[in-house]
Amino acid sequence: MDRKFDIIIVGAGASGLTAAIFAARRGAHVLILEHMDRAGKKILATGNGKCNFTNEKQGIAYYHGKNPAFVLPALRQFGLQETLQFFGELGIYPKKKRDGYYYPASGQAVSVVETLLMECKRLDVKIAYNIGVREIVKERERFSFHTKQGILKSRCCIIATGGRAAQKTGSDGSGNLYIERFGHKLTDIVPALVQLQGKQSFLKEIAGIRADGKIQIYIDGERVAEDMGELQLTAFGVSGIPTFQVSRHASFALFRGKAVYATLNFLPDLTREETQELFIQRFCHYGGGKKAIQALTGLFPDKLNKVLLKEAQIPLDKLAVECTVQELAALAVKAQCLRIDIIGTKGFDNAQVSAGGVDTDEVNPTTMESRLAPGLYFCGEVLDVDGVCGGYNLQWAWSSGYIAGDSAASVCELD
Fold first, then answer.
1. Distances in Å between the alpha carbon of 403 and those of 80, 278, 330, 373?
2. DSSP string across 333-350
3. DSSP states of 150-181 as a string?
4. Are 412 and 10 in contact (CB under 8 A)?
């Protein structure tokens, strides 16, 4: 293998492969160093193996971080249309589904990985697997990569090592050591798009339930986030896309030692007064001959009916018509504000992404180049940028990868 390259990229994930392709298209001699035994492992897990690789809805509202506006220059240069064109040329026929989600028509994430690797091969991008980078040092205008296989050198370095989520795919935070040695600060890194753990004992009783509703997150008593959709209730807590969407807020708060709780609203389209009236109708007007538990049949899943009644302190076998207005008001509160005290998340291993990373104040948003170390670039999840569910984290990988690869190659052209 050659020892000198124009650009060496650390990490063969979504952003690293994209950066390599666009750098090589400009004529750069590119090497990717990957510490796993294959490329794109995390891509294979996205969209339940189907790879939701972008979304027709784009903008700052779908991204988080210390400075969400950091994503805008990259999205303007390489947004939805550029992404669809790029993958279309590689052979990925896009198929749009609900809410503007785009998947490959094959329905397989492996198709995305294979087409990226085929393009890397066509462009003579070298990929070295099972490479452990011990140290990256900048010496004048060159970077030296110290590995077990010897020292490699390049004009530019692109860090695409990912965050800390789904560590079995190689995204284990190992790149942070190199980053800090260049003087860069890392913001707090926590699991995001992850399940939340609660302490209430009734969770075991409602485990397995899927119900449409709203989840709201409270930190030190203040509501900070909410989302709606299908909630998945488990023995440990709450899962499902709405939970993922708000989980970063809970993760950061727990990391900082704050009190966190969630409320679940199973009738989010009704006001409290309308909910109470609904229960009065079901119990008092149409509840003749029914017990309290039977009066809820058909409204919520059976296991949830039992828990809501218990939490409202209404005996399950009490005659529905004998339930008082006060009891039904309490039931309305529980149906729309079932509290779950959050004691943790399911951790990095179960998270789809991590929130936090390289402080974007120290990175040029139009080039992805370090403001501290010229010739050093970042892309993907390693930066303090995380998107919501729906293809946004992969869109960030493609966009930032394009910018980093193209920008680094332009520097090499000038040498």
1. 14, 55, 55, 17
2. HHHH-EEEEEEEE--TTT
3. EEEEEEEEEE----SSSGGGT-SSTTHHHHHH
4. no
DSSP codes of every residue in 293-344: HHHTBTTB-HHHHHHHHHHTT--TTSBGGG--HHHHHHHHHHHH-EEEEEEE
CA angle, 354 then 357 then 358, to 5°: 155
**How is residue 314 written in tokens?**
């209404």
Q: Nearest 5°: CA angle at 400, between 399 and 404?
A: 125
Beta bridge partner(s), residue 197: 237, 344
Bridge-based pairing state of the strands 222-233 and 237-239: antiparallel
Distance CA 365, CA 111 (A): 30
Total Cβ atoms within 10 A of residue 269: 10
Backbone angles phi, psi at 27, to 5 degrees: 95, 5
Cα separation of 386 and 389, whole Å?
10
Taking residue 410's Cβ as centre, other Cβ atoms within 10 Å add up to 14
Cα–Cα distance between 61 and 165 in angstroms, integer?
Answer: 22
Residue 263: which of 298, 219, 325 has the closest Cα? 219
| Sequence letter at residue 21 | I
Query: 17 and 32 in contact (C-beta within 8 Å)?
Result: yes
Residue 313's φ and ψ, nearest 5 degrees, are: 60, 40
Full-model pTM: 0.95
Looking at the DSSP bridge assignments, the partners of residue 377 are 158, 369
CA quadruple 49, 16, 96, 62: dihedral sign: positive
Average pLDDT over residues 31-51: 93
pLDDT tens-digit profile of 334-388? 999 999 999 999 999 999 999 999 999 999 999 999 999 999 999 999 999 999 9
Dig out the tokens for 29 from the structure: 């001699």
Nearest to 219 by CA among 187, 272, 263: 263
* Two structure tokens written together for 35: 């510490």
